[in-house]
Design a protein that fits this description.
- With 159 residues, this protein is α/β, with parallel strands linked by helices.
- The chain has a single domain, classed as HUPs (Rossmann fold), CATH 3.40.50.620.
- Helices cover 33% and strands 23% of the residues.
- It is built from five helices and seven strands; from the N terminus they run E-E-H-E-E-H-E-H-E-H-H-E.
- Strands 1, 2, 3, 4, 5, 6 and 7 form a seven-stranded mixed beta sheet that branches.
- Helix 3 packs across helix 5.
- The longest helix has 17 residues, at 29-45.
């Protein structure tokens, strides 16, 4: 996954069943690719898109989820339902039970730490299939228009 310049996705599990899509979202680099892919799939399959974020005592991710929802609604015409979860991988697994597919961006530390606790729990315990996503060098559909003029097609991975 590390050596290619394009976005990469790996499916854990079988073909998705009917139902909503769930995207765990904390605003990390690969999360934006996951939310974009999740929005495209939700639009194509005509199913709800749910954005799950942590709710920690005194702080929650409601503003972040609202901003992400506005971004995908403006760019792709897909509205997303926010879902605030208590901390812990078990809460994310529980929230995924009625989803057809979970689309999760890799952690920024995936090279050193692997999937991490939450994504590992989803891969091992979650009922729906899991689509793990890593962002590539090229700008995605949510990128500002001025970033689309970069000649990333000529970029090669560093040795």
């Amino acid at each position: 996954m590390a050596g290619v310049p394009c976005d990469v996705a790996a499916l854990v599990g079988g073909e998705p069943a009917p139902g909503p899509l769930l995207v765990p979202f904390v605003g990390a680099e690969h999360d934006w690719t996951a939310i974009e892919l999740g929005a495209w799939l939700a639009r194509e399959w005509q199913v709800p898109l749910r954005l799950a974020g942590p709710s920690v005592e005194g702080r929650d991710s409601s503003r972040l989820l609202a901003s992400a929802s506005l971004a995908i609604q403006g760019a792709l015409g897909v509205s997303a339902e926010p879902l605030l979860l208590a901390p812990g991988a078990d809460q994310l697994v529980r929230a995924s039970r009625d989803a057809a597919l979970v689309v999760a961006g890799l952690s920024d530390r995936w090279r050193k730490e692997g999937l991490g606790e939450a994504r590992g729990a989803l891969a091992h315990s979650a009922t729906p299939s899991l689509l793990l996503v890593r962002r590539g060098l090229r700008p995605g559909g949510l990128a500002p228009p001025e970033s689309l003029t970069r000649f990333t097609w000529s970029l090669r991975p560093s040795a």
